[in-house]
């Protein structure tokens, strides 16, 4: 009975979520007012390192791997007010400003490919976080909270470029996912409660004290399910480590590694191309993808266009990224002639 009532509630109140295009190519650094050119260049390289960690999914990158002169990778910069205070060698306080730098994603893709770092495009899967902590009393974490756990989530979101959200924990959530079900990491209940949010990934984490500190046990639900454990010195550290693990998994799934040589030669058909604007938009969209080396039009038949695509990654990995963005939707090919059924058919959605 609870299951039937929950389904009815979910059908009455559904919140629409989808993969999100994030601005991951901007970073800032604090500088002394009137800082010299060399100090600004080093601050720019530090900002570039932050961006490249987000853009590649790799946390092992070092400042020494960033170009000595990063100017050619910059698309814009500016100075913002800063209330932080630095001290000089004499111990005197020095006023500061914040250098904000925007980097060109195409140039960053080229740098990543040249160094075989891989590249994680800025369309990231929306990730719903069900978090529960036992720190003397069992409690859930929501967007309205203002504590170190929410700060931990925001830290990882910024550092890794994650698209995360927390549930509302309103009456509907509390009914669909009782605390006992979340604490037990019961996947069926978590999947049911998550349906209203329509996230790409659902992650449940419970955090409790152990003999040696704090322990987190998590469950990741996307196309499959994965359980994991992390340990730390505080609930916030455990939550950060858990989200770092989630970021690593997402980067492994969605990062694109281009060698510059075609790894797959594909024939795709796209329907819904009934105007020049859509024709131009489709070709522009595909040719701007880091994993696509070339796109050629093989045939046009009414609103159906046949494309020959040279991809630097295999078809499954290419589609795993494009499917997040929602501009192509895979279509049913059962109606096609047998000779054409080997070609993948998509609908153009914008």
Description:
A hairpin with a 2-residue loop joins strand 15 (292-301) and strand 16. Strands 8, 9, 10, 11, 12 and 13 form a 6-stranded mixed beta sheet that branches. It is flat and about 70 Å long. Residues 1-17 have low confidence and may be disordered. The protein is an alpha+beta fold. 33% of the residues lie in helices and 31% in strands. The longest helix is centred in the first third of the chain and has 20 residues, at 37-56. It folds into 3 domains: 2-20 and 122-254, Ribosome hibernation promotion factor-like (Double Stranded RNA Binding Domain, 2-Layer Sandwich), CATH 3.30.160; 23-114; 264-348, Ribosomal protein S6/Translation elongation factor EF1B (Alpha-Beta Plaits). It has 10 helices and 18 strands. Helix 4 (148-160) packs parallel to helix 8.
How many structural domains can be distinguished in the coordinates?
3
Secondary-structure class: alpha+beta
Q: Ends: how far apart?
A: 41 Å
Mean pLDDT across the residues is: 88
What is the CATH class name of the largest domain? Alpha Beta
Briefly note the CATH topology name of the largest domain.
Answer: Double Stranded RNA Binding Domain
- Into which percent range does the helicity of residues fall? 25-40%
H-E string: HEEHEEEEHEEEHEHHHEEEHEHEEHEE
What are the segments in which pLDDT stays under 50 over at least 5 consecutive residues? Answer: 1-17
Under the CATH scheme, the architecture of the largest domain is 2-Layer Sandwich
Helical segment count: 10
Largest sheet: 6 strands, mixed
- What fraction of residues sit in β-strands? 25-35%
Total strands: the figure is 18
Please identify which CATH superfamily of the largest domain we are dealing with. Answer: Ribosome hibernation promotion factor-like
């Amino acid at each position: 009975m609870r299951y039937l009532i929950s389904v009815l509630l979910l059908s009455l109140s559904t919140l629409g979520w989808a993969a999100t295009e994030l601005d991951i190519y901007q970073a800032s650094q604090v500088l002394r007012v009137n800082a010299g050119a060399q100090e600004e260049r080093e601050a720019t390289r530090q900002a570039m390192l932050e961006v490249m960690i987000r853009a590649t999914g790799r946390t092992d990158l070092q400042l020494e791997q960033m170009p000595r002169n990063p100017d050619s990778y910059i698309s814009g910069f500016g100075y913002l007010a800063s209330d932080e205070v630095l001290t000089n060698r004499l111990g005197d306080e020095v006023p500061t400003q914040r250098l904000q730098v925007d980097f060109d994603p195409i140039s960053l893709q080229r740098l990543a490919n040249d160094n075989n770092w891989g590249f994680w495009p800025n369309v990231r899967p929306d990730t719903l976080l069900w978090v529960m902590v036992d720190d003397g009393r069992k409690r859930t974490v929501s967007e309205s909270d203002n504590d170190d756990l929410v700060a931990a989530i925001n830290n990882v979101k910024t550092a890794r470029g994650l698209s995360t959200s927390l549930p509302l924990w309103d009456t509907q959530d509390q009914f669909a996912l009782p605390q006992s079900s979340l604490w037990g990491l019961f996947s069926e209940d978590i999947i049911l409660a998550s349906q209203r949010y329509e996230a790409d990934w659902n992650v449940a984490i419970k955090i409790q004290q152990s003999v040696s500190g704090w322990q987190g046990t998590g469950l990741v639900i996307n196309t499959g399910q994965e359980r994991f454990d992390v340990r730390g010195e505080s609930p916030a550290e455990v939550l950060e480590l858990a989200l770092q693990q989630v970021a690593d998994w997402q980067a492994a799934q969605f990062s694109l590694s281009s060698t510059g040589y075609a790894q797959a030669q594909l024939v795709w058909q796209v329907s819904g191309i009934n105007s020049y604007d859509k024709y131009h938009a489709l070709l522009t969209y595909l040719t701007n993808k880091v994993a696509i080396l070339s796109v050629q039009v093989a045939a046009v038949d009414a609103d159906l266009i046949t494309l020959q695509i040279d991809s630097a990654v295999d078809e499954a990995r290419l589609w795993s990224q494009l499917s997040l963005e929602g501009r192509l939707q895979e279509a049913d090919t059962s109606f096609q002639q047998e000779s054409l059924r080997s070609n993948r058919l998509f609908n153009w959605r914008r």
